[in-house]
Write a structure and sequence with these properties.
By secondary structure, the chain is an alpha/beta fold. 39% of the residues lie in helices and 21% in strands. The strands form seven sheets. It has a seven-stranded mixed beta sheet, sandwiched between helices. The radius of gyration is 23 Å and the shape is globular.
Length: 497
């Protein structure tokens, strides 16, 4: 059920927002008493004071998580019991979907229609899927000789800390919460300081569902304080991180400086969306290209930020993409009709505008957008922006912008498209539009990306893994493969001779 525009604004004004940390089964302020302002990108107003946790809070949360893990109150529960509780958790998230969607939109600026239709349902589905999966995964018996029995079993890794980004606050968290809790771990969630509100809120829902004290903790705070303290902590067994490649490299360093904790990274992307001249439907491809970069304000690691077009259809494709972009102008995120919302904060706004200026200065042709929008609102908005005549050496073709900025490049043929597609440090996603199935398979194999879409973009299901090659990270979120990140394999060898 949708809520009319006026009602969303009224509910936003009356919403009670909790900004505290959640440690060992209760909400509490940071040990230091420090807070930071949570500012809405919609209009620049302060939503709440949020606890700024630091080393002392991390120590408390890790100790609580360790006690819970060692007690067996969750880690040694039968899988069917963890399944029951996690299914209840998913149900509660759906029951509070309008409140959570409103918090998500106020906090990071995405359209309320997307929060309601995409973010909250996907969060609940993810947790429910891992709940259903956990009692269907079998251990193994190795094919040894007749005088030995070798068992291969999965065990929870222990205390898992998840550091998640601001662009999909709940979905990114759920991709880690689901498999980590289903496997029996204790869990500490460190949301981005830019979008911590829904993470804080679901802690109470987790407790209501029956997740024991200490098993699920939430530490709002800055990356350089709370995040670093978790990554360096000697009693954290695993870090699941989604964010920039620069910070992901720090996670690896912190692991080496501490206890060699497992580190799983889902980092940046500069994904090529390749449209060849034999594309079966240019209208569909152009609309998908616009959505691939403008959905969620372009704040997606898998965004199709490089449009690589075969020269025979270049002009036609770009004309259609520009037209599609002009139908996605920024609007009030609390209006259900809005398709493009606000950039998450003023820092990211300046970053995006800086890349647009770099595109101009390096000689790319600006076809659409390129300016700040809705300045009178007090919020942070950027027009959908399309550059043509981009070359692989340009900054806007090499670096992740994380905004609604498309870099369009022209190539002579499929072979050049693959070379250009593979020319960046990232390898998260890619797409190929062609009616030739043989060419599609060959290009999919040649593209160094964790995900390749054929005649579509950003197709999604919880059953398939999400992650990339090269400096886009290590490990995979989603699918049964995610259990590999949050479990240890143990061999038990029994001598039967």
């Amino acid at each position: 059920m949708s809520t009319p525009n006026a009602d969303w604004h009224a509910r936003a004004r009356s919403l009670t927002i909790n900004g505290q940390a959640y440690i060992d089964g209760r909400y509490r302020p940071a040990v230091s008493g420090e807070t930071f302002d949570c500012v809405s990108p919609i209009d620049g107003r302060v939503l709440a004071a949020v606890a700024s946790t630091d080393v002392a809070d991390v120590d408390l949360a890790v100790a609580a998580a360790r006690r819970a893990f060692e007690s067996g109150v969750w880690s040694r529960q039968p899988p069917r019991e963890r399944k029951r509780v996690l299914l209840r958790f998913a149900e509660l998230i759906l029951a509070h979907r309008e409140e959570l969607a409103l918090l998500e939109t106020l906090d990071m600026g995405k359209p309320i229609s997307d929060s309601l239709a995409v973010d909250i349902p996907a969060t609940a589905r993810c947790i429910a899927w891992y709940a259903e999966a956990v009692d269907k995964i079998y251990d193994e018996v190795a094919p040894t000789s007749h005088d030995a029995l070798a068992l291969i079993t999965r065990e929870p890794v222990g205390v898992v800390a998840a550091i998640v980004p601001w662009n999909f606050p709940l979905i990114m968290a759920a991709w880690k919460i689901g498999p980590a809790l289903a496997a029996g771990n204790s869990f500490i969630l460190k949301p981005s300081e830019k979008s911590a509100l829904t993470a804080i809120r679901i802690a109470a829902l987790a407790a209501e569902a029956g997740i024991p004290d200490g098993v699920f903790n939430v530490l709002p705070g800055y990356g350089q304080t709370a995040g670093q303290a978790l990554a360096l902590h000697m009693d954290v067994d695993c870090i699941g991180f989604t964010g920039s490649t620069r910070t992901g490299k720090l996670m690896l360093q912190y692991s080496g400086q501490s206890n060699m904790k497992r580190v799983w990274l889902e980092c940046g992307g500069k994904s090529p969306n390749i449209i060849l001249a034999d594309c079966p439907d240019l209208d569909r491809a152009a609309q998908a290209a616009a959505s691939a970069i403008f959905f969620n304000q372009g704040e997606m690691c898998s965004a199709g930020s490089r449009l690589i077009v075969e020269e025979r259809v270049r002009d036609e494709v770009l004309e259609k993409v520009v037209a599609a972009g002009r139908r996605m102008l920024p609007g009030d995120p609390l209006d259900p009709g809005t398709r493009l919302g606000a950039i998450v904060d003023d820092v990211q706004l300046r970053t995006v505008l800086g890349y647009i200026e770099a595109g101009r200065s390096e000689g790319a042709t600006l076809l659409a957008g390129g300016a700040r929008a809705r300045e009178g609102s007090g919020g942070y908005y950027v027009e959908p922006t399309v550059f043509a005549d981009v070359t692989p050496e340009m900054k806007i073709a090499r670096e992740e912008i994380f905004g609604p900025v498309l870099a369009a490049m022209t190539v002579r043929d499929a072979e050049e498209a693959v070379r250009v597609g593979n020319s960046v440090i990232y390898g998260l996603a890619a797409a190929v539009w062609t009616r030739d199935i043989t060419r599609a398979h060959r290009m999919a194999r040649a593209l160094r990306s964790g995900m390749v879409y054929v005649n579509c973009y950003d197709a999604d299901d919880i059953t398939v893994p999400f992650g990339g090659f090269k400096q886009s990270g290590t490990g995979r979120d989603k699918s049964l493969h995610a259990f590999d990140k949050y479990t240890e394999l143990k061999t038990t060898w029994v001598d039967l001779s």
